[in-house]
Amino acid sequence: MRGGAGTLRRRRPVSVDPENLDINKPLNFHHEETTIHWSEAL
Fold it and tell me: Disordered: where is this region (predicted)?
């Protein structure tokens, strides 16, 4: 059971890490412009 949980937990952060970094980079570059662009795209 421990191995299964470890694999699932490890996969979760790996998938969120790259996405978070990608969103954090543009937000830091142009916070206002990015916020408006993301809002329109969403």
Answer: 1-22
Total structural domains within the chain:
1
DSSP string, the chain: -HHHHHHHHHHHHHHHHHHHHHHHHHHHH-HHHHHHHHHHH-
Cα–Cα dist 4/11, whole Å: 11
The pLDDT assigned to 35 comes to 61
Residue 3 pLDDT grade (very low, low, confident, very high; cuts 50, 70, 90):
low
| Domain range enclosing 23 | 2-41
According to the model, what pLDDT value does residue 7 have? Answer: 55
